[in-house]
Amino acid sequence: MKRPIYLDNHATTPVDPQVLEAMLPYFTEQFGNPASAGHMYGWEASAAVERAREIIASSIGAEPEEIVFTSGATEANNLAIKGVAEAYFEKGRHIVTVQTEHRAVLDPCAYLETLGFEITYLPVQANGLLDLSLLETALRKDTVLVSVMAANNEIGVLQPIAQIGALCHERGILFHCDAAQAIAKIAINVQTQNIDLLSLTAHKIYGPKGIGALYVRRKNPRVNLAPQLHGGGQERGRRSGTLYTPQIVGFAKAVELGLAQMTEENTRIRKLRDRLWAHLKTIEGIHLNGDLEQRLPQNLNVSFEKIDGAALLLGLRNTVALSTGSACSSGKPSHVLTALGRSPDLCRASLRFGLGRFTTAPELDTVASSLSQTITTLQKIPSKAP
Length: 386
Ligand SMILES: *Cc1c(COP(=O)(O)O)cnc(C)c1O
Prior knowledge:
Blueprint: E1 5-6, H1 17-23, H2 25-28, H3 40-59, E2 67-70, H4 73-87, E3 94-98, H5 103-114, E4 118-122, H6 132-138, E5 143-147, H7 161-170, E6 174-178, E7 197-201, E8 212-216, H8 245-260, H9 262-280, E9 286-288, E10 299-304, H10 309-316, E11 320-321, E12 323-324, H11 335-339, H12 344-348, E13 350-354, H13 361-380
Helix pairs in contact: 1-8, 3-8, 4-5, 9-13, 10-13
Residues 72-74, 102, 104, 149, 153, 178, 180-181, 201, 203-204, 212 line the site of pyridoxal-5'-phosphate.
């Protein structure tokens, strides 16, 4: 069977062949434990990890000691939010976040609520962007942390993180940013954007799964963090567990490649995305979800009127692999689209296009014409959706 065209690059990306090549020696020859200080195997692995740490740190304007390797952005978000909540417990128990954040931010926050913390979940405007004046009024004396993502994983919108960072720093409040979808796609600089904690992951940028990092600011201010994994004391005690050398090396290679081609790639992909949108917007009853300008060039997210979401995916699945607005396995309408004010039916009949490094113009033409056909057919059938 012919494999469908892959347009689910916000879910994960293939490992770039150059990344895989960089990783391979660390599985078989240079396999030592970076913590083994007594022999060459350990030294080699440790040197590779520290080189990777430098590359990743410098890509965001940080120092190597400020990088804590984790299993991905989920763990980084958990470490940032729960780690700060625990460490600043005496100072305050109020956290501010946004309704459209990833589950890996919302769920640690919900967990903290069960422990007595107070969380403010800010709404967004119809275009998916945070209204800064709402944020400003939400900040209190006992607010210890603000967590806002850089780029949304469903609708690709870019939150004004530099302004959010400035607002937080004026008031001595820590700013955490989930940049899983943003790294190597938009410029991130923890200094100019006043970010205190930044979550990263490799597998959305053509690196391997199972590796990510948390940036933790060391000065102006120094961020205290209560570790969430206790054990061998790796990562200066902030995250115990044997470092996964091949994944770390691959992560750094992915960051390096991503940054080197970022500007050029973004121009190419934006053209492809805009052409796709030009095709699609002629379809009757289509709605664009999220702001078109303040948005990742890789992303398009649309809803269709009077279409059954399940039938739509079924009609497309042999041609194209992408996600719908009915989040994950639950079949519940997307919390992100709901926060934009979309009706449950529009949420269900939505498609997220995630373009990537290997997406081509002919692929998108195929997808656009297949989609138009499917929609025309489905609109002729009286759907269950009112
Ligand atoms: C993918 C993603 C995560 C989770 O990252 P993992 O590395 O898979 O744990 C968190 N936040 C956002 C915005 C994401 O897109």
